[in-house]
Amino acid sequence: MAVNITSRADVEALIRTQVVSTIFQDIPKQSVFMGMARKLPNMTSKQTRIRVLDFMPTAYWVDGDTGMKQTSKQAWDNVYLTAGELAVIVPIPEAVLDDAEFDIMGEITPRVNEAIGKKVDEAVIFGINRPREWQNDIITLARQAGNNVALGSDPDYYDLMLGEGGVISKIEEDGYMATGAIASMGMRAKLRGIRSNDGIPIFKSDMQGATQYALDGAPLYFPQNGSFVPSIAQLIVGDFKQAVYAIRQDITVKILDQGVIQDPITKDITYNLAQQDMIALRVVFRMGWALPNPATRIDEDRLGCPFAYLEPASAVTTQKVTFTVKDNSGSPVPIADAIVDVNGSRLKTNASGVAEFNLRAGTYPVKIKKSGYGTITETVTVVSSAVDKAVTLIPNA
Fold this sequence. Notes:
Blueprint: H1 32-36, E1 38-39, E2 47-55, E3 75-82, E4 84-93, H2 94-99, H3 104-126, H4 138-144, E5 148-149, H5 157-162, H6 167-173, E6 180-183, H7 187-192, E7 214-215, E8 218-221, E9 235-238, E10 244-256, E11 260-262, E12 269-272, E13 278-290, E14 307-310, E15 319-327, E16 339-342, E17 345-348, E18 354-359, E19 362-369, E20 376-382, E21 387-393
């Protein structure tokens, strides 16, 4: 005889499902660069000028009691911070806001702030979607200064970071001390694998406690906001206080309930806020940054860089850009020791008047100068092949 019961399936409509009154999510991450670099007073216009020491005076020994004393000079240069703008609009139907169990605006705003921090780090450090008004990113500046360290076929990470010719020694040779380092999350495993000759882990001696990673006293951070690009660099070390930034407009949130939203490509209207009973959360942020790189007694020509990085196994593809600088005489003569400044990356021409850069695809402003000659401004565009650029400097009258 069949035995009938009222099963769970029969009363499923009556069973209450518990809903946890919180949203399971990660804590929003902030900008790594802005937490480590030096903040300047807020910008009062789109562009801010910094006066930077460009040329240092020299002293000379006097030959005897009646020797002639020589002259010297000191000069300054301008470095500009230009505000780039980050913005986003989040449209939301008003009915969705009314029916939601949570404060949707309160949930969205921190994530938008996190997205802004990620974009800042990507642009400043790696040059990803860098505003065209900004100078070269930190990786490009370090590479042009020769501060990139190749991984090699059998890498010894201890030497690559802390040894002679490693990333720290690169910036020390330019006259700077490391104040911090950032690396990909995958670098943690490589650091844990470094052992002394006795087989003792160098970076982690206690398997039960948290490890505070540091390189020669400089704290080492592992960004978790998604901004670090391991295909460009594994590790970046530098004097982060040499990098400066200023805010033109702090993160501003505005609620829109009027107007239309257009497709940025086709310009077609996608939403009419008033007609469709919608609101839009608009967030705007404007800031500028620079690496002034003033002249020092160790680097009087400002050719060095306070940052260095460890390359991945396959280095980023760049194109050689060659500048050949000559005078305007009937038979042009190469000009040695001219400064070629490609959007903040500086090199001196050699005896043949040549300076070679390795640049990723993009368009770069260029300034070529030498004492006694007029300054030339150019633009170079890099696509997928090498670029040769001839430059003529005209002596001052």
